[in-house]
Glucose/arabinose dehydrogenase, beta-propeller fold
Amino acid sequence: MRIPNNLILTCAVSLAIFASCTPEKSPFDVSPADSMDPKRLEQPYPAISIPEDADMESPVWKGTDLSPQPPVIPVSANEQLKSFVLQPGYKLEPILSEPQIREPAAIQFDGNGRMYVLELRTYMQDIDATGELMPTSRISRWEDTDNDGVYDNSVIFLDSLVFPRYVVPFGKNTILSMESNEDNVYKYTDTDGDGKADKKELFASGLGRSGNVEHQTSFLTWTLDNWMYSTYNSRRIRWTPDGVIQEPAGNPWGQWGVTQDNYGQTWFQDGAGGVPQSFQFPLVYGNFGVKGQYKDGFREPFSLVKLADFQPGMRETKPDGSLNNVTGSAGNDVFRGDRLPQELQNKYFYGEPVGRIVRQVNTEKIEGLSYIQNPYREAQSEFIQSTDPLFRPVDIATAPDGTMYIVDMYRGIIQQGNWTQDGSYLRTKIQQYQMDDIAGNGRIWRLTYEGMERNKEKPRMLEETSAELVRHLSNPNGWWRDKAQQLIVLNQDKSVAGDLEKLVTTSENELARIHALWTLEGLNALKLDLVKTLMKDKSPQMRIQALRASESLYKYGEKSLAADYREMIKDSSKDVALQALLSANVLKIDQYEELIKSTLAENQSEGIQVVGTQLLERIAKEKEMAATKFEPEQLALFNKGRTIFDSYCATCHGPKGLGTPTGGGELIAPAFSGSQRLMGHPEYAVKTLLHGLNGALDGKEYEGVMIAMDSNDDEYIASVVSYIRNDFGNSGSFVSPEYVAQIRKETEGKQGTYEFDELVGEIPKSLTLQDNWKITASSTALQGVGSTKDPSYAFSYKGWKTDGAQEPGMWFQVELPTAQHITEVQFDAGGKEFPIAYSVSTSSDGKSWTKVAEASGNPGANTIQWKAEGNARFLKIESSEQGEQPWAMKSLTLYAR
């Protein structure tokens, strides 16, 4: 891992910066470097260069003012305050600014209230996105040591990152993060208490996405249901003591922002679409279209900046030069603090950095469906407006002190280089106002309200016991409730189950009851009788939460709950009835399709009709897709494997692949969902089924023992392995009966059941790309704005390809720092750009080569194996035929024994 080694922002430097400011001058009077240069205003206004092929009569260009204009001038944070237009009674104050931070894009707080800042230091440093993927971004951690409201003490927790996607505090001195063009989420821990991460561990895989940096995964968010959601991924993940599991979910339709309300409803923020998404029902139930969910006029922003400097051009410009349609949004939060007026509680907020506004969203619930509007629309206003063109609100957060924090990148360009290329409308407007060199700044603001002082209690949750954390579940600030629940679940301390049950059954605080219920669920200590009692609670919201939490019990085998779902579809509350219908469908209870049809006939409420109709349409589509998702031979294996699993394996591994709990709450057998062992090399699962497995798995004991199943034929084994690698949220390669036969023959002398360490020692290990690997190629194409010709992208989601059509003799080479017993190569060739034919050679010195394997390429996944006679430091993949298309590889993996 890359450990921070360039400590630019040490605590001492930060304190020195503040100490150097006189009492009469706040540190926030320090201006950005650009504004400190008086020559900026003295420069002649630039002549505007109009692209030769620009159609000045098109809706994009027609009416454009291209006359020379004064440059936009960046100002200090205190000077910027004068530009804000706020609703009566509200006040903004800066709590952190440049030069201490640069390019802040998101913030998160750990259990002690320390603020982690995601600094995207390579984002649009010039108009061409030069160096966008250089490893110079960072995650810094900040603390207000004297409790004066200003963050004064910092450390670089994690440095030298490639455009990181998010920061997620995850227990004591630990965060989760993922870099761009990668598929893995890593857990970073400070083990020695110096404030810098020194340990890196794989947390989860399969959550990455390649391409434009604005179109990749962001905001991995732990929510009320103890699952974690991110943008772009149609799946959710969950930490458990036995590993990270995954489940399919709907499409979040989000780009930069995931948050939740007091009742666990997730909200995703679309980017270019400019509107909230997937806010009707929790994402696990899928997507639903609701006509009119955005009320008339919702898409119209009321901006005070009138430069017409946005990518859609004049077609989305009001006569005064301001934006007429939301076109970019970033960062979101349902405000759940207690130090702003009650009217803001549980309201959704997001930034529109193109319009330079922060929008408030009010929700109206009608017959179970949600409809949203800007509450200031009639006044043609917004919750926050600014006249400063550099105000770029990109994240919003409920803070531990009960107020709202707003992250402002404060920069000239807010759209990535794909939209600022030569000849574009946006590039012309940026250069007209000389905004292309205003970068490297950033402010974080606190929003307060007159007469309401921020909460000055400093959280100390990371030092508290689980019993002490329980009291925070009743805190009026949702941040405290969320963090306490997360930490108790991470502790897995079941000694507090009694206290939590008491809180659920006796408290008059509904939100405290809800968090206690879900904390029990997260501890695997939720009892069936408690859930059934809550299903009859006088509060409709508690009945809804009981239904949702009960789904975990159903997945672990409590099939009697199906009767409760059927009964609660008739609930007097339309919201409860809808939840029961959604639970019955997602769990696929017996005859659920017929249940949906009968409910549609009996209940004419709008929500039931909209949801029920779309569920039936989805069921029909799923049936159709089931026959086309896999190749015929794969579908046959999948279906046979599912039948075997349901009738045999589910007893121990659970009907949903989550494991079956014992009476004490432990699991009889490990979960399959998201299992790194299962989704690694298929040899692990095949050998386990053939010969059985005994002993602790990664130090975790299970009650059950995996017996040998070698009495079954090769197709049986291949079916089960293929099924479990492609259900429960998993997506892996299929295993053929021929492959099973090969492994069976190779291990026919095996005596007795495998011990875990013995089996793991035999399985090929994937080699993780390290900084000291040397990757070269005979030809490498430049891919995307701001990219470099780097063949190591073959190991990422971004991918590598040749610069032109493939030819015989083209090669891709890896030099390892030490020799390895390499036996296999896997890569994804995408659609059409696969190698027609190729060979693999190895070498100990890079001079004398031995060809070890040859193969024909395929679209999608490619695997080539060989029996290695010895170790090698060099590996070369070489094209052996002419092709019309380039040769491409991504997610390249080397396996060694």
